[in-house]
Amino acid sequence: MMALILIALVTLASAAAAMLLRNLIHSALLLTASWAGLAAFYLWAGAEFVAFAQVLVYVGAISMVVLFAVLLTRPPQPMPVTPPNTLGRALVALITGGAVLGVFIGAIVSSPLPATAAPAPTVSVKQLGLELAGRHAGALLIVGALLTVALLGAVVLAATDREPVGASLDDVRGRPPGTPLQKSGDAP
Amino acid sequence: MNADSILERGPLLVRDWLVSFLPEPARWLAGSLLAITAVIVAFASLFALLTLIERKVLARVQNRPGPNRVGIPLTKIRLFGLGQPLADGIKMLTKEDIVPRSADRVLHFLAPVALLAFAILTFAVIPFGRHLVPVELEAGVLYFFAAGAATELAVFMAGWASRNKYSLLAAMRALAQLISYELPLLLSVVPVVMLAGTLSTTGIVERQGGWTFGLLPQWHVFTPWGAAGFAIFFVAALAESNRSPFDLPEAESELIAGHLTEYSGFKYALFFMAEYFGMCALCGMGVTLFLGGWQAPLSFLAFIPSYIWFGAKLMTLLLAFMWVRATLPRLRIDQLTRLAWKFLVPLALVNLGVAAFWSLSADWTGAVRLTRWLIAAMLLAGPFVLLGRKLTAGLAPRIYRYAT
Amino acid sequence: MSLSSLQLCLLFSSALFCLGLMAALSRSNTILVLLGVELMLNAANVNFIAFWRYGPNPEAATGVVFVLFAIAVAAAEAAVGLALVIAIYRHQKNIRLQEATRLKG
Amino acid sequence: MLGSGLLSGLAVTAKNLVGSFHDPARLTTVEYPEQQAKLPEAYRNFPFLVSENATDPMGTLRCVACQICEKECPPQCIYIEKSKDKKPDATGKLQLYPAIFDIDTSVCMSCQICVEVCPFEAIKMDQVFAIATTDRFDALLLKREQLAKPNAYYHTIHPTEAAEVDARLATERKAAAEKAAAAAAAKAAAPKPPAPPPAA
Amino acid sequence: MIASDISPLASRLSSGAHTRAVTDPFHGDLLEVSMGPHHPSTHGVFRMQVTLDGETIVKLKPVFGYLHRNHEKLGESTSYLGSMPYTDRLDYLNSMTNNWAYALAVEQLAGQPVPERAEYLRVILAELTRLLNHTCLAGFLLQDCGCSGTPLMYAFREREKILDLFEALSGSRMMCNFQRFGGCRTDASPEWLAAAKQLTDGYGAFLDEYERLITGNEILMARTQGVGALKPDLAISAGITGPMLRATGVDYDLRKVDGYGFYPRFEFRVPLGDHGDTYDRYMIRVLEMRESIKIIQQAFATLPAGPVMDPKAKLRGFRPKPGEAYGRIEGPRGEIGFYLVSDGTPNPYRYRVRPPSFVNLTLLEDLCLGHTVADAVIILGSIDIVLGEVDR
Question: Is E341 helix (H, G, I), strand (E, B) or coil?
Fold first, then answer.
C-alpha cells in the first residue's frame, strides 16, 4: 500500500511538473519519468510483461520520438512566456479538470468497491501469448495493420523533400544569409 | 558436465556461507545485495581491464606496444601496464569537474548517473553461469531491452544539457541512432525467442544445451537463422553501444567529443564506465542468445565451470568489438539510418521467416535435413545479396585512366 | 474513512487523467497537447490493470491484453501525432495550436 | 558482394595484430628513454664551437670572430663581440677571438647555414637534442663556454665529416706553414743579400 | 503574433526573450558552428564557420591566418640563401620539394647550372617526398573518416622510414634545407642509395596492404564517392592544381608540361579521375604513389656519377643580376612556385610564393555546400592542406 502511494505520488508529481514547465525538453524528460513510474505501478500490480512493454515503448521509443519532435520544431524565437488567452484557457482547463476530478473522486469514494484477490494474480508470458494469439488474434492482426499504417502515415507526413545533395550551388549561394534551405513548393 | 560439481556451485556456496552468519530474515536481502555487489565489482574490474585491453589491442593492430609502463606504484615493476587503469582512475578523480555556465546543471549531472544506472540494470537478467542469474525473470529478454532502451535517453540528456552546439548535434544523432537500431536489434532476437519458446534467458541458454553427434554444440549461431540473427544482432549492438563504426554521437573528427565535449573528471569517467558496461551487457546478451550462454563449446570440455565459458565467450565478443573498431571508418548519419531501415530491418524480417520455416521443418529427418539447411541458407543469401546490392548501389571500386 | 487498494488505484488513475485533460485543454504547444492525450491514455491503462488486479476474474488476463493493445495504439498515435506536428511546423514555422487553422498547406 | 571490403580490411588488421607479437617490422617503436634509435651521422641539432683541445677550450677556439655566421644566420640567433686583443691560433698566427659568442637556441632553427658559411671550420652542428629545461630564458641562451666543445667530440659525432675537415685543415695549415716558412726563409734571406757594401 | 494581444508584462518578457534568441543557438532552423581553430580535424589552426540546417551545410566560411608568419616579407629581408630554411617551414611535410622549387627560381634568376647527379638526386628526393605526402594524406583522410588511427599509424610507419632517409641525408627529418643554388648540399652515400632503393622496392607491398585494408571498404566508398565532387571547368577557373585537379580529369602535370629537372628522361603515367570527388582525390594519390615508385627506380638505375654541386656556385656573397624569375614544380599538393625579383642586392626585392594548398582551399565552400558536417571534414581532408603553407 505504501509502495503504491509512493509510486502514485512520484508519477503524478512528475506528470504535473511536465505539464506545467515551459521548457519542452524538461517536460518530455519528466514525462518519461512519469511513464517509468507507471511501469513501476504495473510491476507492483504484478503485470510484469506490461511493465516491460511500457518501458520499452514509452521510455525507449515514444520519449525519443517526442524529443526528436521537440528538437526538430525549435521555434525561430523562444516561445513567449504567456501567449494570449492563456490565462483564460488555463482557467477553463482548471475548472473542467477540477470538475471531472471531483466527479471521479466522488464516484470512486462512494462506490463500494471490493478489494478481492489479496495475493497478486500472476499471468505467465505463455498464457499471455496464448490469449493474444488465440482469443484476441483478430485484434492482434488489426493492431498490426494499424501500426503498419501509422508507420507509413508518419513517414509520409514527416518526409521532407530536401534538395538533392550538391544540386545547385547557385540556389544556395543566391539566398541571403540566414534563410533556410526551403523548397519552392513549401512557400506559403 | 556435472551440474552440481563443487566448482560449478562455488559462488553459491560462498554466498550461502557468508549469509549464514546473519539472522534468517536478513538472509534474503543480504544474498541479493551480495549478488549485486559481486556483479558490479566483477564488471567494474572488467571495465578497468577492458580499457587497458582495448588500448593494447588498438596499439598492437597499429604496430605499437600500447600502455606498458604503469605497474605497481612506487616500484619499477611494470606488469605489462596493468597499473594503467588505476592511474587513469586517479587522474579522472582528481580532475576538476567543469560545468558550463549556461548548461542545464541538473540534467548535466543526471545524465552520467542515469546512463550508468540503466547500464547496470541490464546485467540483472544475464545468466553468467549455470546457477548464476541475478534475477530469474520470465520475460527476461524483454526486460533487458526495456532497460537498455533507456540508455540513449541519457546520452541525449548529456548532449542537450551541455548547451554546446556539438553536443546538441550529438544528441540529435544519438536519438536518430537509437530509433533506427532498436528495431533490428529486437527483430534479430525475435527468432531466438520464437524457436526457444521462452523469453527467459536461462530457458534460452538451456535450449542450446544439446550436442550434435554427442560432440558439437547446438548453439543458435550454428543454424542459418541463428547465424544471420547473430550478424544482425552484432551490427545493431555495435550501433546501440555507440561503438565504431557507429560512434556518431561522439565522432571525434567531426563533433570533437559529441555529447562528452563538456564533461570532465569523474562524470566523464562515469560515462566511460557506463559505455563499457553497456557494451558488456550487450555482448553478454549476444552470448546468451546465440552463442550458447554458459554452455561448453565441445561436449568433453564441459568439466570446466560454466561461468568460465561465459567469461571466455564474452571476452571473445568484446575483442571482436575492438577488432572492428580498429579497422573500420565511421558511417555518416544518413548512411547509418539507411543501413538500419533498408538493410538490417528487411533482412531481420526475412530471417524471421526463415526461423518460422526452420521451426515448421523441425521434424524433417535423414537426408531431407540437409535440404532444410540448404533452403534456409538460400532464403537468407538471396535477400542478403539483393539488399546489399541495393544498399551499395552506385558504389564500386573504380578503374582509372591515364593521360596519354 | 479507509480506502481500499482498488480505490487508491482508481484515484491515482483519475488524477492522472485530469492532469492530462488539463494539459490538453490549456497548453497551446501541440506537442504538450499530444502528451496530455498520452497521459489520459495511460490513466485508462492504469484502470485496466487495477480492475484486472482486484477484479473478480484475474486469471483471464483480459485486462493485461487490453493494456498491451492500448500501448500499441498509443505508440501509433504518438508517431502519427508527432509527424503531424512536424508537418505543421514546416508550414507555419511554429507549433502553436491556435494558429494551425488551415487544413490546406 | 557487400562486406568483402570490410572483411579484407579485418584480415589486414588481424595480421598486424598477430604480427606485432613476432615480427619486428610490425612493432616498429622503441621505448625512448631506455632504448634510443641510433642517430645518423648527418643528424644536426644546434651549433657548437670547435676548440682544438679539451684542456683549454676558450684558448683554442677556431673561431676568429669574423661574424659571417652572425650575418648569414636567417633567424639571427647568433651574437658575437670581437675581442680587443689577439691570441695565437693553432698555427701560431695571431687572430682575434670572440669575446662574446651567444646562440639563442630558442630561436635557432638548426638550418646549418652558419656551418656552411664559416670559412674557418669553427662552428659545427651538435647532436644533443634533449635540452629541455625549466628556465625559459637564460638556460636556452648558450654562452661561449657552453658552446665550446673539443675537436675530439666533433670526431665522435660526425666521424667522416670531421676526418675530411681535419685533412683539409691539415693541408691548409701545411700550406700555410710552408708559405710561412718560405716567407720566413725569404725574409731571412732577404735582408742578407744586399749586405751593405763595405764602405769603400 | 500581433503585438497588441500581448500584455505589458508578457511583452517585456517576450522582448527579452527575443534579444536572447539572437545569440541563442538553440532556436531557429539554422545552427552556426565554428569548427576550429581548435578542432581535431581541421589540420592545424584552420577555422570553418559553418551554418547548418540540421546537419546540412548551407554556408561555410573558411577563416585562416592563425599561423601567419610573414613569410614573404621575411624573404625580402633575408639573403637568398637565408630564405631556403624558411621554405622548409612552408609546407612542413614536403620541405624537399619546396627547396627544389625555390632553388629552381634562384637558379633561373642567376643563370646557375646544376650538375647532372644533383638533378637526379632532386628527382629522387622529390618523388620520395611525394610518397611521403600522399601516404600521410591517405592516413589523415581516413582518420577524418573516423578510423581509429589504424590507417594513420600504418601510413606513419612508412613515412617514418622515408623521414629516416631524409635525416640520414640532410641531417633533419622534416626541415631538410637540402637544396642549394647549383646543386645539393651533400652527396648521397652508396649506403644511403642502397637503403633508399630497398625502401622504394618495398613500398609497393605497403601500398598493396594499405589498399587491402581500406580501398575496397564499403564504408569508405559510401563516405567518399560522390562527396565533394568538383567540376573540371570550375577547377580550372579557380586555379586548382595537383592531384585535386587531376581527379577531375584535367590532364595537367607540371612534370609533363614543364619537363623541369630530368623528368622527360623518366617514363611514368599521369592518373586521371572522372568524378572529381573525394574518392577520386584519394585514389589519384594512391596511383601517383605507384608511378613515383617507378620514377625512383628508374632514377636509381641510371644515376650518374659526378659532383652534386656546381663548383662555381657561390655560397657567400650571392648577388644575382637584376631581373625576375618564376620557378615552379609539381609539388605533391600541386603547383608550388616561387617568384623572385632581384635588384642586384643580396636580398630579393620581391619574394612571392604560390602555395598550392592555399589556392586549392579556395573552393572549400563550393565543395561542401549541401553536404553534411561529417562530409566537410573529409572534403577538407581530401583537399590536403598544410596550414604552414596556407597562412605563410
Answer: strand
